[in-house]
Amino acid sequence: MFYKLEILSHEQSEKLKEIRNFFKNLNSVCVAYSGGVDSTLVASLAFEQLGSKAIAITGVSPALTKTLLEEAKTQARWIGIQHLEIETSELDQSSYSENPKNRCFACKKELHKHTTFLSKKLNYKIVCDGVNLDDLDDYRPGIQAAKEAGVLSPLALFKFTKKDIRDISKALGFPWWDKPAQPCLSSRFPYGNQITNERLNMVEKAEEYIKKGSISEVRVRCHGATARIEIPKNELQIFCKEYDFNELVNYFSNLGFNCTSLDLEGLISGKLNR
Predict the structure, then answer these.
(1) 32-46: b or e for each residue (b if 16 or more CB lie within 10 Å)?
(2) Per-residue confidence at 1, pLDDT binned at 50, 70, 90?
(3) Which of 80, 160, 166, 238 is surrounded by the most beta carbons within 10 Å?
(4) Which residues contact 73 (CB under 8 A, 6 or more apart)?
(5) Closest alpha carbon to 25 in 4, 55, 8, 45
(6) pLDDT, tens only, 240-249
(7) What's the pLDDT score for residue 23?
(8) With contact defined as beta carbons under 8 Å apart, do 25 and 49 qualify?
(9) How many Cβ atoms sit within 10 Å of the Cβ of residue 243?
């Protein structure tokens, strides 16, 4: 059992108790697990209550960075939960690759086609994801696809906010409690801009270059052949001092970008939803 190493508020303690009882009363569960803080908390508590009757499944595609996949593997080993990988093929579907506004619906539909099939094949009764209460107020068409597939969202059910998830993860001693949010690489493309394996690879390598420095978070938005770098606003001056702009532009140019810019507004999650 994961014991509390820090004090939680009464409300957070009650939420933790409720979700533990939820998993305790299940026969078995399969967790759609990305390695993010949200789904990792779900996987951790599922394993805590059910042991080998809980498994974690990660959908692997070019939109998932190699770094995040390795982190997901490491975290699963730390928890102790069995971790399976499945290859998804959303890029083969025009409903995804053409990047319409409901692209995430196609993504989650493809993912849960595999998670629900595999969970039934392995005799795991229920599939859960890491959707939380705050996600319900955002534009997330993938949530509808999960509902249609019969996937449950215990964090949302028991009203876990993003703050609750980080606070509880920290209190339980999870070393990744403050891990930055890392949406899939396809979120770097404005709606209507085609998504390809090659363009995803460009973005992944561009972000890896920025992450070699001391910047905490980065998004490289891909507007055609233009790269727009988003980093936290309070780190803009650090970025300007730390990076050789000529070297950076040349590197991005070799990747295939013909123009590179820095967004002075700073990093804002979901900015392209505007």
Answers:
(1) bbbbbbbbbbbbbbb
(2) confident
(3) 160
(4) 35, 83
(5) 45
(6) 999 999 999 9
(7) 98
(8) no
(9) 17
